[in-house]
Amino acid sequence: MDAFPHCYSVVATAHAEGDVTLTADRLSALRSASPAEFDGPGDQWSPETFLVGAVADCFILAFRAVATASKLPWTSLRCVAVGTLDRVDRVTQFTNVTLRAHLSIPAGTQPDRARQALKKAERTCLISNSLKATTQVETEIELDTDNVEDAACPYAGAWD
After folding, report:
1. Three-state DSSP class for 138?
2. Residues paired with residue 32 on neighbouring β-strands, in sequence order
3. Could you give the C-alpha distances from 149 to 144, 152, 153, in angstroms and in order?
4. How far is the first Cα of the chain from the last one, in angstroms, to the nearest whole number?
5. pLDDT of 46-101, one tens digit each?
6. For residues 29 and 11, what is the distance between their CA atoms, to the nearest angstrom?
7. Domain of 87: which CATH number?
8. Is residue 139 within a helix (H) or strand (E), and if so which, with residue range?
9. Is 3 within a domain?
10. CB distance 76 to 64 below 8 Å
11. Is 12 exposed, middle or buried (0-12, 13-18, 19+ CB in 10 A)?
12. Cβ(119)–Cβ(141) under 8 Å?
């Protein structure tokens, strides 16, 4: 990892009408538009969906780093993120982002270790740490019982 501080540069360009194009060195261009809630087309990524997606993405990448460092085996992590945009003191801002993280771990892995890794990922997510909005993480751990006969999974079926 490079020494801090890190600097990230993105160029956004647009015309009077149409999409905004975001570009950055060595990355594919992205197009965005206002969401339907702000009279946009609603069929493209918007700054609002980028922000909520960035929280979920960062949480997963933070978890991956924590799991790797602690040698915690895991199968998959699905994270549903919901951001609440509201007016506070006449300013429109995100007030809350809730993450629902569903982690699958191999049979034989201790759920308490996985829970600790999820908590550490929550504490170290640099995107949520950079927001004014509060972030809540709801976690669920499922034992991956593929190829294991008669294994009981107390978490199966939740959040489907």
Report:
1. strand
2. 20
3. 11, 9, 11
4. 37
5. 999 999 999 999 999 999 999 999 999 999 999 999 999 999 999 999 999 999 99
6. 10
7. 3.30.300.20
8. strand 134-144
9. no
10. no
11. exposed
12. no
- Asked whether residue 153 is domain-assigned, the answer is no
Query: pLDDT, tens digit, for every residue of 105-126?
Result: 999 999 999 999 999 999 999 9
Q: Is the model's pTM score more than 0.90?
A: no
**Backbone φ, ψ for residue 152 (5° rounding):** -85, 135
Phi-psi region of 29 (alpha: psi -120 to 50; beta: other; left: phi over 0): beta
Could you give the maximum distance between any two Cα atoms of the chain, in Å? 62
Please report whether residue 61 resides in a domain.
Answer: yes
pLDDT digits (tens, 9 = 90+) for 119-156: 999 999 999 999 999 999 999 999 988 744 433 444 44
User: Considering its fold, how many domains does the chain have in total?
Assistant: 1
Domain that holds residue 104: 47-144
- Token pair for residue 37? 């809630």
DSSP letter string over 83-98?
EEEEEETTEEEEEEEE
